[in-house]
Specification:
Largest sheet: 8 strands, antiparallel, barrel
Distance between the termini: 30 Å
CATH architecture: Beta Barrel
Radius of gyration: 20 Å
């Protein structure tokens, strides 16, 4: 009986810490989603302060708004590396109202910075040159926990992308022979994702 009592105290204490209206210390998970992008990602959210977390991601995705540098290539998957500082602005308010804030269940604003390196692209024809790009998207979103391990998120924003075009590249409508250069574009962002927290 004494062991059961100690176990309940520890379990309730752990739950209280998860529900204190502050950003979790560190959360690891995987998720999939669709919208402007479809793919699968592994991520970590690391606490920087009581309301700010740094989300880092690595994954494979198809970016439907990637522009004409992969035009007419079909469904491709390319690697992506993302850093996203998130400000969860309503965790304390949700906690004071008795709502679930575990695993950072709240609303946030962020700056999503994603880099597609030119390492490889799955299902890209051999005659198309791999291109790197960097996107910066101010974002508003919500994140909610479904049960102990599952979450869902939705987010929207409008950002800017820099595409790095290589010399002697062949990409869709781009035929570049003069040297490396950059192409810039504005990008809307809409995303719905479902995740699993370890």
């Amino acid at each position: 009986m004494k062991k059961l009592f100690v176990f309940l105290i520890i379990a309730l204490g752990a739950n209280a810490n998860a529900q204190d209206g502050k950003v979790e210390k560190s959360i690891f998970g995987i998720y999939t989603g669709f919208g402007s992008k479809v793919g699968i990602w592994a991520n970590n959210e690391f606490r920087l302060s009581t309301s700010i977390a740094l989300r880092s991601e690595i994954g494979l995705e198809n970016d439907f708004l990637v522009g004409d540098h992969y035009k007419n290539t079909g469904f491709i998957l390319q690697p992506v590396l993302t850093l996203e500082p998130r400000y969860y602005y309503n965790l304390a308010k949700r906690n004071s109202r008795g709502r679930n804030t575990a695993n950072n269940s709240g609303n946030y604003i962020s700056i999503k910075t994603s880099y597609h390196p030119d390492w490889f692209v799955i299902n890209l024809p051999d005659n198309v040159t791999k291109i790197a790009d960097l996107g910066i998207i101010p974002t508003w979103g919500i994140k909610r926990q479904i049960d102990n391990h599952f979450t869902y998120e939705t987010a929207l924003g409008l950002g800017y992308r820099i595409v790095y075009i290589k010399a002697n590249s062949t990409n869709g409508n781009i035929q570049n022979v003069d040297g490396d250069y950059e192409r810039n574009q504005y990008i809307p962002y809409l995303h719905i994702g479902f995740g699993y927290i370890f």
